[in-house]
User: Which sequence fits this backbone?
């Protein structure tokens, strides 16, 4: 299903309910319940149920009896036979919604619902349920960008995401013309960075210019990052503006979703394309949003044209990337060796004067 | 003042593999091979370096499961048998190669010498307890022993704060039991970090952890000295990160030292090469061929097929190990000078972490390399000084405050080895058990506060507090064992998938049996069969006898 902006439809109005009769929300969690109620009120739909607070939705606390996996101990085989035939218990149908980070660009989500969600929906909304589809919604909580996928009441899903962002997943009912009905939501995860921070320390002992930091990265075996840090220099804001200007020039369009792609990632992609990388080679090196933009503009992304766009805005005479592989580790380990990233460029940042560093 | 500091950090870890239900078990050989090829040689070398005044300084993590296996009487007994069997075979082989296959006689003689020394060390010097040997080396100032996750649980993929905390607190308690003091540092399992882990470490009294390179390089704000100086998190816990250059130099299968043609070829083993009638008495009862540890060939060349490998010549390999050690030191001196220039005079620190099993098991000559390295470092130069992370913290050097980024040292640098299509099925079960563990720990602890905890001679059929405690403690062991990152790793690597999957299933299954056994009511009967089942599980998974389930309470 296509990605949509949260502001497009009334589905940003959220109704909350759970799938069976609920225990009361504890007093410690009442603020959450209040905010949910207020949100639902804004959707002008009266709720008959109250959503439990986050902890109980994502990982409910059942009674001690694990019903689905219940084993009649009295009728068991002798102890060793029981142990010699290990089997996974059947997981009890409960409300589960767990989001896990796999990498800066990929997260995993698994979920299950305790009861029949359509029955519960029907119970809440009466005859209006036909227009609704059970969906999984992933929300970038900073940009509010979201994506929707129709789902079954139990399953798992892999999302391509962007680095350094905060995400939450929700299960609920979607209708193009009606408010979103949220059933449960997951924990929140932050994807790790996949490049250096743009921020130097403000403490005089630890401040470092872009030029110096590029040298530090280079000495640490992170040549690709050293290249970018050197190219950007000390005025990251200006560099980001220039990056987007170069990108817009290349695309012949300044209307792309610039808030949703990082300038640093754009620079990396442009530099790589200018030295001969294909889009396919970049597929797993950049986030899905930027990849989609590049794909849509494939015909404008020749290496010479891209190099020219970069050179118009940055002090780059020539770029030539060459990734050197170091194989894998001797033995059983899969220890990570960053690829050596060769360029012809010396580290000569655009400017180091703007923040007056040593 | 040296030009540079060098900190070697070794991570000695094996998953808890102990199968008393079988007279012999293939996967137990992982431990036996590692004792023979890695732990005994390293202990011996470090002890000898110390005695000759070479003053090595090394940080080493001996993981809690490894410690528990090394002190286990059953495994000690089985290892003794394993070593005696191997020495017996080596002696036969020395005789055979002397008479009929002289190409391999040098190697065969080497095995007899090595294994004879190993048997003496094992029985006489260390009394079959290598934990005491590590402890002694720490007390002598050679080693800085650090801890790890209790069962090498991958912390970012553990779902609750309580069960993450338990991985650390159980490990710290186990360290204190074995080494008699508080650990200063921790090797985060798989160097897997996500922001917030440092709070658990701080609460457990840990001063520093080891992370991968980009944890610091991509941290915020930018690290002034990259990975060549530690940083501290806001809460004061320090972070030491991996230097890529030394990692490549020793570990890469493309440019690393272990790939030299003179070094021993790992994949040619008498267990596969020799006629069955010759090795059968030395195999397990099932008679299946397996690696026996006697390997007679050298690598010869990168593209040389296995059948064309040339004989291993120990003296050539030893000479090469000495050369590699010299080269490694020269490279460190050169690296230190270069970094010092970049750092405007500050003395750089190169942190060089490896799996301990690289040294001796995968790279047979690795222990010799370390022996030469520390000798040359001490006697032949004064520009590089060997230190431990604890030494750096004690030096009082100012340290930058930084928030590291989420990372691991695995393939691609994040969590994709331990969470991917082939092993993602594990996590709903693991997370379910994690939630239940805290639930039953909370409930039982609340109940036990109301009941006299010491009921003597419990009647069969009555769940009293003593048996309840046993069930809970065993459930904690099963959860911890299920959380071992080793199972997801092996499934990813497609090496021992069946065993890894079975182990995970077993521990989740046993956890579930115990959870069910504990029941829902205040007074649940426990039949003799249930007691027998509990005892059987306890006898099989006897890790951490000191565990206290209350570590899981909210």
Assistant:
């Amino acid at each position: 299903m296509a990605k949509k902006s949260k502001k497009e439809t009334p589905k940003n109005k959220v109704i909350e309910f759970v799938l069976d009769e609920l225990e009361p929300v504890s007093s410690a969690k009442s603020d959450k319940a209040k905010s949910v109620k207020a949100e639902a009120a804004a959707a002008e739909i009266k709720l008959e149920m109250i959503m439990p607070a986050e902890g109980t939705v994502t990982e409910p606390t059942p009674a001690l009896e694990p019903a689905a996996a219940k084993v009649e101990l009295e009728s068991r085989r002798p102890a060793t036979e029981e142990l010699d035939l290990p089997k996974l218990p059947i997981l009890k149908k409960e409300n589960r919604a767990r989001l896990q980070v796999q990498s800066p660009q990929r997260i995993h989500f698994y979920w299950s619902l305790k009861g029949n969600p359509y029955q519960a929906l029907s119970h809440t909304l009466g005859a209006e349920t036909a227009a609704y589809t059970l969906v999984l919604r992933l929300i970038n909580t900073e940009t509010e960008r979201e994506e929707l996928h129709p789902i079954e009441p139990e399953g798992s899903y892999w999302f391509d995401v962007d680095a350094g962002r905060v995400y939450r997943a929700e299960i609920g009912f979607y209708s193009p013309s009606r408010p979103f009905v949220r059933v449960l939501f997951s924990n929140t995860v932050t994807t790790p960075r996949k490049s250096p921070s743009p921020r130097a320390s403000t403490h005089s002992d630890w401040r470092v210019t872009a030029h110096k930091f590029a040298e530090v990265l280079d000495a640490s075996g992170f040549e690709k990052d050293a290249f970018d840090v050197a190219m950007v220099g000390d005025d990251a804001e200006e560099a980001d503006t220039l990056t987007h200007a170069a990108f817009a020039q290349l695309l012949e369009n300044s209307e792309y979703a610039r808030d949703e792609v990082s300038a640093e990632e754009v620079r990396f992609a442009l530099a790589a394309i200018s030295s001969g990388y294909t889009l396919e080679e970049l597929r797993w090196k950049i986030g899905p949003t930027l990849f989609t933009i590049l794909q849509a503009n494939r015909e404008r992304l020749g290496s010479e044209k891209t190099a020219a766009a970069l050179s118009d805005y940055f002090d780059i005479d020539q770029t030539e990337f060459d990734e050197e592989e170091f194989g894998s580790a001797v033995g059983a380990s899969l220890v990570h060796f960053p690829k050596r990233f060769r360029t012809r460029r010396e580290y000569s940042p655009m400017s180091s004067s703007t923040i007056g560093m040593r | 003042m040296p030009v540079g500091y060098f900190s070697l950090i070794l991570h000695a870890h094996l998953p808890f593999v102990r199968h008393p239900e079988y007279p012999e078990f293939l996967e137990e050989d992982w431990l036996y091979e590692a004792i023979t090829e890695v732990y005994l040689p390293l202990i011996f070398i470090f002890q000898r370096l110390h005695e000759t005044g070479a003053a090595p300084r090394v940080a080493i993590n001996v993981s809690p499961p490894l410690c528990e296996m090394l002190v286990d009487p059953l495994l000690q007994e089985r290892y003794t048998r394993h070593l005696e069997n191997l020495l017996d075979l080596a002696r036969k082989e020395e005789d055979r190669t002397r008479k009929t296959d002289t190409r391999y006689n040098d190697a065969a003689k080497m095995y007899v010498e090595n294994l004879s020394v190993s048997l003496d060390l094992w029985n006489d010097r260390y009394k079959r307890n290598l934990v005491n040997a590590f402890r002694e080396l720490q007390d002598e100032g050679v080693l800085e022993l650090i801890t790890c996750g209790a069962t090498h649980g991958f912390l970012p993929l553990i779902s609750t704060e309580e069960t993450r905390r338990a991985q650390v607190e159980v490990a710290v308690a186990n360290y204190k039991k074995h080494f008699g003091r508080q650990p200063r540092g921790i090797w985060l399992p798989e160097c897997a970090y996500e922001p917030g882990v440092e709070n658990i470490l701080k609460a457990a009294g840990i001063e520093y952890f080891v992370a991968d390179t980009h944890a610091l390089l991509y941290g915020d704000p930018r690290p002034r000295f990259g990975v060549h100086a530690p940083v501290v998190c806001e809460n004061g816990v320090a972070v030491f990160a991996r230097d890529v250059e030394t990692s490549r130099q020793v570990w890469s299968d493309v440019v690393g030292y272990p790939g030299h043609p003179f070094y021993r070829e790992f994949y040619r083993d008498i267990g596969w090469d020799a006629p069955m009638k010759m090795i059968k008495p030395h195999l397990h009862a099932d008679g299946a061929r397996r690696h026996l540890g006697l390997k007679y060939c050298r690598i010869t060349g990168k593209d040389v097929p296995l059948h064309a490998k040339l004989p291993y010549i120990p003296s050539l390999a030893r000479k090469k190990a000495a050369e590699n050690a010299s080269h490694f030191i020269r490279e460190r001196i050169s690296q230190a000078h270069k970094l010092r220039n970049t750092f405007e005079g500050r003395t750089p620190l190169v942190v060089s972490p490896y799996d301990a099993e690289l040294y001796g098991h995968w790279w047979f000559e690795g222990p010799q390399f370390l022996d030469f390295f520390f000798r040359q470092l001490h006697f032949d130069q004064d520009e590089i000084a060997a230190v431990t992370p604890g030494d750096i913290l004690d030096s009082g050097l100012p340290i930058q405050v930084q928030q590291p980024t989420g990372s691991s040292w695995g393939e691609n640098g994040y969590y994709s080895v331990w969470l991917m299509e082939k092993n993602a099925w594990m996590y709903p079960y693991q997370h379910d058990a994690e939630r239940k563990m805290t639930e039953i720990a909370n409930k039982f602890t609340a109940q036990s506060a109301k009941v006299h905890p010491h009921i003597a001679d419990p009647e069969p059929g009555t769940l009293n507090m003593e048996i309840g405690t046993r069930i809970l403690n065993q459930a904690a062991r099963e959860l911890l064992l299920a959380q071992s990152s080793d199972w997801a790793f092996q499934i990813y690597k497609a090496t021992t998938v069946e065993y890894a999957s079975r182990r995970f299933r077993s521990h989740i299954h046993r956890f579930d049996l115990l959870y069910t056994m504990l029941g829902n009511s205040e007074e649940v009967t426990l039949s003799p069969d249930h007691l027998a089942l509990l005892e059987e599980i306890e006898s099989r998974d006897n890790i951490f006898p000191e565990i206290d389930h209350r570590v899981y309470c909210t």
Summary: Chain B has three domains: 4-71+129-258+312-412, 265-287+297-311, 426-552. The longest strand of chain B covers residues 4-12. Strands of chain B lie at 4-12, 58-62, 143-148, 185-187, 208-211, 231-232, 238-241, 349-355, 384-386, 400-401.
